[in-house]
C-alpha cells in the first residue's frame, strides 16, 4: 500500500513566499515589472527539532515573544525597526541580532529555489498572457521541487503564504493545474507520485509558521541577487542582504556543479 511506503520516506515541505506584483500589467518600475516566487525546502523533522525552537528562542531573546502572543518575523518591519522590532533602532542590538540570525541561516538545513518573471519582457515577446503570471513561476518552482524529491527518494507538500482573496485562489488553481496536467518537462504522474497532496496549502504567516517566516526573510535578497546578475537592479543589495545572498549561494538547489535553485524568465 502507498501509505506504508510513504511512512518510511522523509517528508519535506516547500514554503513559498512572493515578492513583487502579480498583475498582468507591467512597467519599468521594478515593483510592478517583476514577480518572483521563492521556495524554501525543509525536512519537517528538522523544522520540529531545530528550526522552530531555535527561531522561537531568538524571538524571545530579542523581542520578548511569548507563545500566547508570538512575534512574527517580517523582513520589512525588521528593516524599519517597527512595532515589535523597535529595539533594532539600537545599532549594537541590531548587529548582535543580525549576527545570530545569519549564524542560524548557515546552520539550518534548507534548500532554496527562486524563480523571477520579467513581466515586461514577457509582454513584449508574446503580447498576450497564455497563463497567469503566477503559473509561469509556480510551474518551474514545482518542477524543480519534484526533481529534488526524486533525487532524495522522498515525498513532500507545498505551503504558501496567504495573500488573501484572488491571489490565494490563483495560486491554488495553478497548483491544481500542475497536479492534474503536469508540464512540458514533468508529467502529472510524477507530481502525483512525489507530492502528498493535490492541493496547495495556504496559510497566513501570523500562524507563526517558521518555514514561512524563513521564506519571508530570504525571498527579497534572493530575488535581488537574480536581478543584480541580469543587471536589472538599480543599486547593489544592502550590506546585510549581501551577507544573506552569500549564504544562499550554498543553499540553492544544485547538483554536480549545476545550480537549479535560481531561474530568471
List strands and helices in order, with pairings.
Layout: H1 2-8, E1 11-20, H2 30-33, E2 34-43, H3 44-63, H4 75-79, H5 91-107, E3 110-118, H6 119-126, H7 133-152, E4 155-161, H8 165-181, H9 188-194, E5 201-203, H10 210-229, H11 239-248, E6 254-255, E7 258-259, E8 262-264
Parallel strand pairs: 1-4, 3-8, 4-5
Antiparallel strand pairs: 1-2, 2-3, 6-7
Helix pairs in contact: 3-5, 5-11, 7-8, 8-9, 10-11
Which tags fit this structure?
two-stranded antiparallel sheet, alpha/beta, 265 residues, Nucleotidyltransferase, domain 5, 11 helices
Percent helix, as a range, is: 40-55%
| Overall CATH architecture | 2-Layer Sandwich
Structural class: alpha/beta
Q: Over the alpha carbons, how many angstroms does the gyration radius reach?
A: 18 Å
Overall 3D geometry? globular
- The helix-strand sequence is HEHEHHHEHHEHHEHHEEE
User: What is the total number of structural domains?
Assistant: 1
How much strand content do the residues show? Answer: 15-25%
Low-confidence stretches: none
Largest sheet: 6 strands, mixed
What would CATH call the homologous superfamily? Ribonuclease H-like superfamily/Ribonuclease H
Alpha-carbon distance between the two ends: 40 Å
Amino acid at each position: 500500500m502507498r501509505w506504508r511506503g510513504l511512512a518510511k520516506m522523509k517528508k519535506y515541505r516547500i514554503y513559498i513566499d512572493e515578492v513583487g506584483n502579480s498583475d498582468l500589467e507591467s512597467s519599468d518600475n521594478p515593483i510592478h515589472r517583476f514577480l518572483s516566487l521563492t521556495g524554501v525546502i525543509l525536512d519537517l523533522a528538522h523544522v520540529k527539532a531545530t528550526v522552530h525552537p531555535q527561531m522561537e528562542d531568538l524571538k524571545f531573546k530579542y523581542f520578548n515573544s511569548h507563545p500566547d502572543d508570538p512575534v512574527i518575523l517580517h523582513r520589512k518591519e525588521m528593516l524599519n525597526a517597527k512595532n515589535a522590532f523597535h529595539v533594532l533602532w539600537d545599532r549594537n542590538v541590531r548587529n548582535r541580532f543580525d549576527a545570530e540570525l545569519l549564524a542560524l541561516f548557515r546552520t539550518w538545513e534548507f534548500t532554496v529555489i527562486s524563480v523571477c518573471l520579467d513581466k515586461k519582457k514577457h509582454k513584449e515577446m508574446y503580447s498576450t498572457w497564455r497563463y497567469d503570471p503566477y503559473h509561469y513561476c509556480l510551474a518551474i518552482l514545482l518542477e524543480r521541487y519534484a526533481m529534488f524529491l526524486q533525487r532524495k527518494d522522498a515525498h513532500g507538500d507545498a505551503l504558501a503564504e496567504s495573500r488573501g482573496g484572488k491571489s490565494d485562489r490563483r495560486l491554488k488553481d495553478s497548483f491544481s493545474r500542475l497536479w492534474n496536467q503536469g508540464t512540458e518537462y514533468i508529467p502529472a504522474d510524477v507530481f502525483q507520485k512525489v507530492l502528498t497532496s493535490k492541493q496547495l496549502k495556504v496559510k497566513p504567516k501570523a500562524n507563526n509558521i517558521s518555514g514561512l517566516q524563513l521564506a519571508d526573510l530570504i525571498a527579497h535578497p534572493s530575488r535581488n541577487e537574480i536581478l543584480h546578475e541580469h543587471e536589472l537592479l538599480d543599486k547593489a543589495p544592502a550590506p546585510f542582504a549581501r551577507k544573506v545572498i552569500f549564504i544562499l549561494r550554498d543553499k540553492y538547489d544544485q547538483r554536480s556543479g549545476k545550480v537549479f535553485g535560481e531561474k530568471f524568465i
